[in-house]
Amino acid sequence: MRESISIWFFAGVLFLTYGVIITTQGLWELIHPLENPPVLYYLHAPIWWGAIMSIAGLAYTVRFWPRVR
Amino acid sequence: MPILGLIEAGGWTNLKHQIGARLGSEYVHLWSTTGNFSQNPMGIHWTGLVFGLALVISCGYWTTDFLVVQRVLSAHNLRSARMAPIIGAAFKMAVPFIVILPGLLALAVLPYHLVPQDVAVATGQHSYNEVLPLMLVRYCGPGLLGLGVTALIAGFMSGMAGNVSAFSTVWTYDIYGAFLHKKATDKHYVAMGRWCTFIGVLISVGTAYLVQHAASIMDYVQGLFSFFIAPLFGTVILGMLWKRGTKAGGFWGLLAGTSTAIGLWAWVRHDPSALRYVALSPDAKAMAEDMYRALWSWLVCIIVTVVVSYATQPKPVSELEGLVYGVVPLPVEHDDHWYQKPIVWAGIIACLFVILNIIFW
Questions:
Q1: Which residues of B fall within a CB distance of 8 Å from A45?
Q2: How far apart (Å, rounded) are the C-alpha atoms in residues B324 and B330?
Q3: Closest-CA residue to B358 (of B350, B108, B100)
Q4: Bridge partners of residue B115, in order along the sequence
Q5: B3: which residues sit within 8 A by CB, 6+ positions away?
Q6: DSSP per residue, B29-94
Q7: Using one digit for the tens of pLDDT, what is the confidence trace for B217-264?
Q8: C or N: which end of chain A has fewer Cβ atoms within 10 Å?
Q9: Residue whose C-alpha is closest to residue A46's, from B140, B147, B99
Q10: Are A18 and A49 in contact (CB under 8 A)?
Q11: Which of B4, B109, B141 sits opposite A34 (nearest CB)?
C-alpha cells in the first residue's frame, strides 16, 4: 500500500519536467544557433537555468517519492 | 528575466544610473520622493501609501480576499493557519524582484520609451502593460518564448480559476443556499455551483474590457480594491473585534463605504478637477486617487458602522460567543522549539521588511 502523494512530489515533478524541457531547448540552440539570437544569447541561460531547475526538481521528486508502507 | 536584465544593465548601481540619466532617479526610490505629489512617478504622497495602501488596501486584501482567507481556513491546525500569512508575506516581499524589477530594467535597456495604455492605443507604441512579454521576447529564443508565454497564461488562468471558484462558493453556499433556496438537494447545489463557475468565467472575460479604460492593469485592480475590499475591511475588523457592533451598523456602514468609493470615482470622472479634493492634490495620479479613495471609503464605513451601532440595540454577549474577539475561547498552543513559534518568524519577516525599505529608501 502506497502512502498518499505529497504536494512536494507534484512540485518536484513539475520542476523537473520544466527543467528538462528548458535544458533541452538550450542545448538545441547551442547546436543549431539561431538566425536572430536574443540579447545575451552567448550566456546560454536556458542551459544553466534549466539545469538548476532539473536538479531542484529531481531532489524534490526523489525526496518525496510515494513509498510503499 | 531579472537576472539576465541585471547582467545586461551592468548591476543594480549601473541600472540606477541608466534610469536616472534617461528618466530621473525618482523611479528607484520607495519613500524619499514621496514628500510631494509631483516628485514621484506615482503622483502620490507618503500619507496615501501608509494609510491608503498599507493600512487599508493591504490589510483588507490579507483579511478579506476570499482567495487568501480560503487557504488559511483550510489549514489543519492553528499554528499552520498563523504561519500561512507569514510564509505568504515572505513570498510577497519577493514579488517586486520578479514584477517591478523587469519594469525598471525595461526603462533602462529597451531602445524605446514605454507609454501609458491610452497613448499606446492612439499612437501604436508599446505600453507599460506589455513589459513582461517585451522582456521575454528580448531574452528568450523562439522555443523558450513559447514556454514563457504559456507560463504567463497559466499564471493568469490559475488566478482567475481561484477567484471564479471563490465566486461560485460564496454565491452557492452563503447567498443562494443560505437565503434564497434553503431546502434544495445536494444535486441542485452542485448544478448551481457549476453554472456559477460558467457565468463567473463569462463575467471575467467581460471585465477584461473594462481594463481598457484604466490607466494600467494595476490602476484597475487598485480601483476595484478601493470599491469593495476597503469598506469590507472596515466591516470585518469591527465585526471581529467590537462586541457593541450591530447587524444594522455593519450593513449601513458597508453600504455607505462602497457608495462613497463609487461616488468619489464618478465625481472625478465627471469633473477631473475634483482630484484635488479626493487625492488631496491636483498633481495626484490615478494610483494615488485609488489609494486615497480606499482610505475615505474605509473611514466612512467605520464612522457609519459605529454611529448606527450605537443607535441600534446590541446583541447580548451570550449570542456573540465564538464570533467576536474577547468571547472566543482561544486554544493554547505548545511549540516544542522556539523556531516553531509563529511570532519568531513574524519577527524575522518584519525585520526583513524594514531592511528592504531602508535599502530602497
A1: 3-4, 139
A2: 11
A3: B350
A4: B127
A5: A45
A6: -SSTTTTSGGGSTT---HHIIIIIIIIIIIHHHHHH-HHHHHHHHT-SSHHHHHHHHHHHHHHHHH
A7: 788 888 888 998 999 999 999 999 998 999 999 999 999 999 999 999
A8: N
A9: B140
A10: no
A11: B141
Backbone angles phi, psi at B115, to 5 degrees: -130, 165
Determine contact: A39 vs chain B, CB below 8 A.
yes
Contact list in B for residue A21 (CB cut-off 8 A) is 147
Cell 460564496, residue?
B170
ipTM: 0.83
Beta carbons of A38 and B139 less than 8 Å apart: yes
Hey, what amino acid is at A6?
A: S
Close Cβ partners of B293 (under 8 Å, ≥ 6 residues apart):
B52, B223, B226, B230, B261, B264, B265, B278, B279
Kindly list the residues from chain B whose CB atom is less than 8 angstroms away from the CB atom of residue A37. Answer: 141
Give me B168's grid cell: 461560485
Sign of the alpha-carbon torsion through B143, B149, B155, B161: negative
Whether A4 and A66 have beta carbons less than 8 Å apart is answered as yes
Q: Which secondary-structure segment (H or E) carries B207?
A: helix B186-208
